Structures are given as C-alpha cells and as structure tokens.
UniProtKB/TrEMBL annotation:
Class of enzymatic activity (EC top level): oxidoreductase
Homology family: Belongs to the D-isomer specific 2-hydroxyacid dehydrogenase family.
Catalytically driven reaction(s): (R)-2-hydroxyglutarate + NAD(+) = 2-oxoglutarate + NADH + H(+); (2R)-3-phosphoglycerate + NAD(+) = 3-phosphooxypyruvate + NADH + H(+)
Pathway assignment: Amino-acid biosynthesis; L-serine biosynthesis; L-serine from 3-phospho-D-glycerate: step 1/3
UniProt domain ACT: residue ranges: 320-389
Protein name: D-3-phosphoglycerate dehydrogenase
Family matches, as SUPFAM superfamilies: ACT-like, Formate/glycerate dehydrogenase catalytic domain-like, NAD(P)-binding Rossmann-fold domains
Keywords noted in UniProt: NAD, Oxidoreductase
Organism taxonomic ancestry: Bacteria, Pseudomonadati, Pseudomonadota, Gammaproteobacteria, Chromatiales
Entry EC no(s): 1.1.1.399, 1.1.1.95
Function, as annotated: Catalyzes the reversible oxidation of 3-phospho-D-glycerate to 3-phosphonooxypyruvate, the first step of the phosphorylated L-serine biosynthesis pathway. Also catalyzes the reversible oxidation of 2-hydroxyglutarate to 2-oxoglutarate.
Amino acid sequence: MYKVQTLNNISVKGLERLPREQYEVASEIGHPDAILVRSAKMHDMEIPTTVKAIGRAGAGVNNIPVEVMSRRGVAVFNAPGANANAVKELVLAAMLLAARNICQAWDFARRLEGDDASINQQTEAGKKNFVGFELPGRTLGVVGLGAIGVKVANAARLLGMEVIGFDPQITVRRAWQLASDVRQAHTVDEVVANSDFVTLHVPLNEHTKGLINAERLSLMPEQAVVLNFSRAGIVDDEAVIAALDGGRLHGYMCDFPSNRLKDHPKVVTLPHLGASTREAEENCAIMVADQVRDYLENGNVRNSVNFPDMNMPRGGKGDRLAVVNANVPNMLGQISTALADAGLNIDDMYNKSRGDLAYTLVDVEGKIPDAVTQRIADVEGVLHVRVIE
Ligand SMILES: NC(=O)c1ccc[n+]([C@@H]2O[C@H](COP(=O)([O-])OP(=O)(O)OC[C@H]3O[C@@H](n4cnc5c(N)ncnc54)[C@H](O)[C@@H]3O)[C@@H](O)[C@H]2O)c1
Ligand SMILES: O=C(O)[C@H](O)COP(=O)(O)O
C-alpha cells in the first residue's frame, strides 16, 4: 500500500487516479511515500525521509525546496501547461479591466446613492472619469514564452494587438506554437520600452526576483500597464506604487494582494486565482497524480523538474531497481558489480543524467535481496535506492 499526503485541496479527479486498493491518501498520514501539493510552502517543513516523490499540481515550484530534495534523491514533479489556459483567460480579463477602468468604475457605481433619477444623473456626470482605451494597435510585451506566455501572446494577436516577446530559453515546441508575427525582443529592457502592457510569465527565481524594478518602469511608455500573474517578488511593489503615483503607469494588475497593494486605487489584486478553474484544477491533479503513480510503481519519470525523463516499459519477471545517484564516474559499474556478485542477471538497464543527478533503472531476473540493496545504498554518491517488485 502506497501512502500519499496532500498538503492542499487536490481535485478529486486527480485523487481518483490513485486506486484505493493500492493507495491511502490523506492530509495527515504517517510515513508518506509521496506528497501532493499546490501552493503550500514546504521550505520550512520537515519532509519525512520516507518521501520518494513530490507532485506539484500546478506550474510553479518555488514553494518546494527542490535543491534539498535533489540532494536527498527525491523526485519533484509538476504539471506543465495544465493550467495555462486558465491563466491566459485571467490575463486577458485583466487587460480589459485595466483598459476600461472597469474595477474603479464598478466601485463607483456600487457606491451610488439616492433614487434612480439621482443615480442616473450621477452616472452620466461621473462616467467621464472612467474613459478607457481600446486594445487593437496597442503593444503587449510578454516576458517568458512558456506554456502561459505563448497562449497570452497568441490571444493578444487575435485581439488585434501588436505583440513583442522575450524568452532567451524558449523551447522549440513553444516557438512552433507562437504566432509567427510576434516580434522577438532581445532583452527585458527592449520589451518594457516598447509595450503599452507588459505581462510576466516566468518562474520566480534568483534571476527573475525584482525583474520589474524602478529602472525598467522608467523605460515604459507613459500610462502603460503591468500585469503580474506569475509570482509576487517578480515585481518590485514599491517601485510600481511610485510609478503609479507619479503618473507613469496607468495600472498594475496582479494575483498577489499585500497590504501595500490591495487598496491602491490604480491596483487590482486578485486572490491568486490564476489557476482556480475547475478545468485547470482537474488537469493539474490528474497529470501530477499519474506521474507520481508511474514513478512509485514503475520508477518512470515524466515532467520532473529535477530528474531526467525516463520511461522503461515493464517487461521483465523479476524486480526493478531504481537508483538515484550523484552524476559522477563509475556509479553504473558499482551497481552492476553488486548485482553480479549476488548472481543476478540484468534484463534491461537505463541510465540518464540531469545536471548533478543521475538516475538508473535496472530490471533483473529474480528477486533482489535486501543485502544487495543495502550494498548499493552504501556506495558513495548514491542518494536513494529502492526495489520495485
Ligand atoms: N497566478 C497563478 O495562479 C499561476 C498559475 C500558473 C503559473 N503561474 C506562474 O507562472 C509561471 C510560468 O508558468 P508557465 O506554465 O508558463 O511555465 P513554463 O515553464 O511553461 O514557462 C516559463 C518560461 O519562462 C522562461 N524564462 C525563465 N526565466 C526567464 C527570464 N529571466 N526571462 C525571460 N524568460 C524566462 C522559460 O524559458 C520558460 O519558457 C510559473 O512558474 C508560476 O510561477 C501562476
Ligand atoms: O504555479 C501555479 O500553478 C499557480 O500559482 C497555481 O497555484 P495554486 O495551485 O495554488 O492555485
């Protein structure tokens, strides 16, 4: 029986992928084999030594101590693209909210008092304060052309906007998906200097923290709009507030409320709603549950952020050994010697590396005795080893 701990609400559609006969799933559970999580912060959490996999039912993994997990040989998975449409739709909504001053105007309308004739009179007198602008012909700058950025860029083209994008590590797959008339920028500065709207779709890390700062805001055209549906921290809140108060920025639309931001008249903060659609929650949960299950039951790896992709079909009649180790010479030699010394014949073997980490699956004829597993676990550089029956 595998044990899976959930740290957030994970869609039942995903949990249903873990059959009850084989899986015990609960928010509180001893000795879990895997953890399923959304945005719960795991950096200060004591992660049990029994954990072999962490599945993030979503995109961003900045809430997970990925490097620490890599050193422990724990695989971390996410659900790339599974919530991209949900975020795209919210970004489009936010662009329209900003362009037409909808939140401010709605707020005005909700505060109207008096009889209907008076409300009508106040409406007609007040509407001049909310005159907006239209999207066709305006330029949208997209920083980060991954699953979400590409969808936002393509949708903006269909709305008649010019689009300029920047992503120095764009994948071939995303480049194929991107509308061919999206202009390529070579720096973030080039994006911000040429965009009426700038939208951010990059992970939060040491390179993207404070990506939109006072200097970059000063390059933006007058009355531009910044959209941040990626992470708090990618935008310097103080710099944005200064740019809004100084009249350079028209608005700041984001998914991350804070005391400084939430009541500002030119800021709209939503409560981290980007991925909060039924469809996205289901997509993410299903994708990550399937991946974690395949890893626990077969050792296969798909959409991990720290392990190499690996898919070795189960054909053999014996045990499968899964070894996570440092990516250094002679590890395979030591693993196969330990098996050979125990008289175990290798049926199939697959080894791949990713950065400092290497991962090996070995199918043997017969059962692997505990002593052999222990001998391999004791090899210097082996981070984690397990036998899958
Ligand atoms: N608001 C929400 O609810 C919500 C939902 C989903 C994702 N997100 C956030 O959005 C981020 C992006 O999600 P995604 O699914 O598009 O991820 P993704 O991995 O598909 O795309 C990220 C892209 O950013 C690019 N990139 C990385 N560093 C960059 C830099 N310094 N400059 C330019 N490009 C850079 C990468 O090359 C990649 O193409 C996630 O990491 C997450 O933090 C938020
Ligand atoms: O990175 C993500 O996928 C989003 O921020 C979604 O977070 P959530 O799963 O907590 O809604």
